[in-house]
Design a protein that fits this description.
- The structure holds 2 protein chains of 2 kinds.
- Chain A is mainly α.
- Chain A has 13 helices and no strands.
- Chain A has one domain: MetI-like fold (Orthogonal Bundle), CATH 1.10.3720.
- Chain A starts with 5 loop residues before the first helix and ends with a helix.
- Chain B is α+β, with helices and mostly antiparallel strands.
- Chain B is built from 14 helices and 20 strands.
- In chain B, helix 7 packs antiparallel against helix 9 and helix 13 packs antiparallel against helix 14.
- The radius of gyration of chain B is 24 Å and the shape is globular.
- Chain B starts with a helix and ends with a strand.
- Classes of the chains: A mainly alpha, B alpha+beta.
- The interface between A and B is medium-sized, with 17 and 22 residues.
Chain lengths: 304, 520
């Protein structure tokens, strides 16, 4: 026997909740972009990142030197036969930096995606369901937050032989806690807003509510966080490589630094060049993250 | 002036750490190795051997030219058939606790070493030991054993006090006397703070008149070699043995206050090499192994990567040994020959120019003689179409497990000669020593009947000329069939302050007694 649901009885007609047709000329995305580009440091960061991407994608074939080839006298300084000098075996540092950038950026991006996905999932469930689910998931998150992340990553990489896959996994596992807390807070805030209640009342399922209704509204801070996470993932990979825990068969900036750290005093360029590359990339990503933050922040919008 | 300043610094430092000032004529030795205990009769490793050789006396010691010299034994005689060795001991040797050292202590020590020392082959032929009176020891052998005299060096045969250990003391590894050693050597044990320092003091009743010169030796243990080298540069320590990093040596050689002694310790004989798993395809083909050797430029490794600080190791026996054979294949760089050998082995390059991939193992740490060499190999072997995947074990046990269970293609390894081939060389090549799970056994699974025969014959050959001939042939075969590509001798140099003289510079280097060491 069917029982009429009291909720459906009191639900107002659909047409009434639908927003009035907007007569705004500017798409919100475009407006955000405008504000973003008006921010000089953010625009600079974007240009820098695009330049770095261009260099790592097209640079190796344009430069044409094999980074594993021993091309010149070992530890020769920049300008003396090679543009950025050679390492202790005689491999071209510039070629290494160009080729190493690819894997470095991929590691940064993939581990950032992993961090974000785990973080959003955990945070969404905790914030949406609340109660015991929230307590359990947040205790779990806290467990990862109190562990020193570099140490945990080192342990993980050491247990499973250092390879690109385990390194990405390790960075993802140690980095998601903050994203989870951020997502949870946003979900709790937005979950109580009228439009979410309305959608719930209209019969939307939990999954639909979480990922189609609440998530889009909570994205701005997560986007900002993901930019920062990408930067820190690159630093993490470099740190692990510096400690000799990188994948020895994948050329990354961190690996070049790790391999040459013994020659720091005799040949500064071997570690400085990849180091500067890491610095510039992380700087660019941070500037972009800052810019996005400003652009997506309603208060900044008013200022602008 | 320098010396006075250093003493002052040393005194202050020691006063801070131990609460007592060091007397004049003291020495601060810097070290990174933490000895488990001080009993070299049952434990190997240079960091145990260094104190053990100074605390305990031994029957013989060795000159720089590999000749035995009297120490506790004044005479030694090998019978015509080589089956009996008779030692005549001094009658005036006393242990640090005042008890006399007699033939029964020597008998006890030989039996203890035979039963417990990690170097199993060292005293294996000893059938029985007799002590007919206080100053005579008769050693009966199952077969002639020319390595026996070298095995009576301070480093390998410390004379333990039987009255301290007792005949039925149970497990000798657990005996407290290992950490509070009583010997008859030039220095007495004073105290040990595990992982921090240990202190030795002059043995006033040492049986060699007027020696030792130093009143105290204070061995400070550093957490890592970087801080140790810095302390040496600052003048906080007077002497550092076993400095092997080419980078450190290069840097220290520019320091006008320090002297680097490199011509010592040949008997320790540490070799850094590339070991092949000779049972694993394609490395089971000798042509493939030779091709890899020819593609690697050993001169580049020694002169550039190791900065000219480490000598080439041409074969399985270190160049400083009287048994070394320098007339072996040198594997001079020859890319064409390497390619030809690989073609001949039927390993044609694929579409990408690569013939096959091998995994190359090493451990984390000691990059200069580990990972850096593999990085070089990776770059170099691409020229002959061999792809190298580097695999770095995070710690020693992981690496040892892989290698000793034959789960590898090639690996960097460091293996020590320990004076006589019977002690430290044979183990890597005789087929009877292919023992799964045991590191530094024949982990390359190398088998050659002629090598087995030669090494067995040389182990019992008492005529030095004939013995050398047997080892010469052995070295030619092993270098030719190349279960191992020998790279370099690890420099075990002693670095010390100017003004220090009488550095232990014999064939055992820094693991010899320091009774001649003193300030000018």
């Amino acid at each position: 026997m069917m029982k009429s649901d009291p909720m459906t009885d009191t639900l107002p007609p659909q047409a009434e909740v639908a927003p009035p047709p907007a007569a705004k000329p500017d798409h919100p995305m475009r407006e955000t972009m405008k504000i973003f580009l008006r921010n000089k440091s953010a625009a600079g960061g974007l240009i820098l990142l695009l330049a770095i991407l261009f260099a790592t994608v097209f640079g190796p074939s344009m430069y044409g030197v094999d980074p594993l080839e021993m091309v010149w006298v070992p530890l020769s300084p920049p300008g003396d036969g090679t543009p950025l000098g050679t390492d202790y075996i005689g491999r071209d540092i510039l070629a290494g930096v160009l080729v190493g950038g690819r894997v470095t950026l991929i590691v940064g991006a993939v581990s950032a995606i992993m961090t974000i996905v785990i973080g959003i999932l955990v945070g969404a469930f905790a914030g949406f369901f609340g109660g015991r689910t929230d307590v359990a998931l947040m205790k779990f998150t806290e467990f990862f937050q109190v562990l020193p992340s570099l140490l945990l990553a080192m342990v993980l990489v050491t247990i499973f032989a250092p390879s690109l896959f385990t390194i990405i996994l390790a960075i993802g596992i140690v980095g998601w806690a903050q994203v989870a807390r951020l997502t949870r807070a946003e979900f709790m805030r937005i979950g109580n807003l009228e439009y979410v209640k309305a959608a719930r009342a209209a019969g939307a399922g939990n999954a639909y509510l979480m990922f189609r209704v609440i998530l889009p509204g909570s994205l701005p801070p997560i986007i900002v966080a993901s930019a920062l996470v990408t930067g820190s993932s690159i630093l993490f990979e470099a740190g692990l490589s510096f400690l000799g825990l990188g994948d020895p068969n994948q050329l990354t900036w961190g690996l070049i630094i790790g391999q040459n750290q013994n020659y720091l005093l005799d040949a500064w360029w071997t570690v400085t060049c990849p180091g500067v590359a890491i610095f510039l990339t992380v700087l660019a990503i941070s500037l972009i993250g800052d810019g996005i933050n400003d652009a997506l922040n309603p208060r900044a919008r008013k200022r602008a | 002036m320098k010396h006075w300043k250093s003493l002052l610094a040393a005194t202050c430092m020691s006063a801070l750490m131990t609460g007592s000032a060091l007397a004049e004529g003291s020495l601060i030795v810097g070290s990174v190795g933490v000895p488990r205990h001080f009993n070299g009769a049952i434990q190997s490793g240079v960091y145990t051997f260094m104190p053990s050789s100074n605390i305990y006396a031994s029957p013989l010691r060795y000159s720089k030219s590999w000749e035995p010299e009297p120490y506790v034994a004044t005479a030694w005689e090998t019978s015509e058939d080589g089956l009996t060795v008779t030692l005549t001991l001094r009658d005036d040797v006393k242990f640090h606790d005042g008890e006399p050292l007699t033939a029964s202590d020597v008998k006890f020590s030989i039996e203890t070493i035979k039963a417990n020392h990690p170097f199993k082959t060292m005293l294996e032929p000893v059938a029985s030991v007799e002590a007919p009176d206080d100053t005579t020891v008769i050693i009966h052998l199952a077969h002639p054993h020319p390595a026996l005299l070298l095995a009576m060096s301070p480093v390998l045969m410390p004379i333990l006090p039987e009255h301290v250990y007792g005949a039925d003391a149970g497990d000798i590894q657990q005996n407290p006397a290992n950490l509070a050693p009583v010997g008859a050597g030039p220095f007495k044990f004073v105290e040990y703070k595990q992982g921090e320092y240990y202190k030795l003091a002059k043995n006033e009743d040492f049986f060699i008149e007027g020696k030792p010169y130093l009143d105290e030796i204070y061995v400070q243990i550093f957490p890592d070699s970087n801080s140790l080298i810095l302390a040496l540069e600052r003048g906080d320590v007077d002497m550092v043995p076993f400095v092997s990093s080419p980078r450190d040596l290069k840097r220290l050689s520019d320091n006008a206050d320090l002297v680097i002694e490199s011509d010592l310790g040949q008997a320790i004989g540490p070799i850094n090499w590339l070991a092949y798993n000779t049972k694993k395809a394609p490395l089971d083909d000798v042509r493939v192994r030779k091709a890899i050797n020819y593609a690697i430029d050993r001169d580049f490794i020694v002169n550039v990567l190791l900065q000219g600080q480490a000598p080439v190791a041409p074969g399985p026996i270190v160049p400083g040994s009287p048994l070394a054979n320098a007339n072996v294949e040198n594997y001079d760089l020859d890319i064409d020959k390497a390619n030809a050998l690989l073609d001949e082995a039927g390993l044609m390059p694929g579409a990408d120019g690569m013939r096959f991939t091998i995994t190359a193992d090493t451990t984390n740490g000691s990059e200069e003689m580990g990972r850096n060499l593999l990085d070089y190999m990776k770059s170099q072997l691409r020229k002959v179409g061999v792809n190298v995947e580097i695999r770095i074990a995070p710690d020693f046990p992981t690496w040892a497990k892989r290698i000793s269970n034959y789960d590898y293609d090639v690996t960097i390894d460091k293996v020590f000669n320990w004076g006589d081939p019977v002690i430290g060389v044979n183990r890597t090549y005789v087929s009877s020593n292919i023992r799964p799970g045991v590191i530094w056994s024949n982990t390359g699974q190398y088998e050659n009947a002629r090598v087995d025969e030669l090494l067995a014959a040389a182990a019992t050959e008492t005529d030095q000329e004939k013995r050398k001939a047997l080892y010469d042939e052995f070295q030619e075969i092993v270098v030719d069939e190349t279960p191992i590509y020998f790279l370099n001798v690890i420099p075990y140099n002693t670095v010390y302050k100017k003004g220090l003289i009488g550095i232990p510079d014999g064939i055992w280097g820094a693991v010899s007694p320091m009774d001649d060491l003193r300030w000018e």
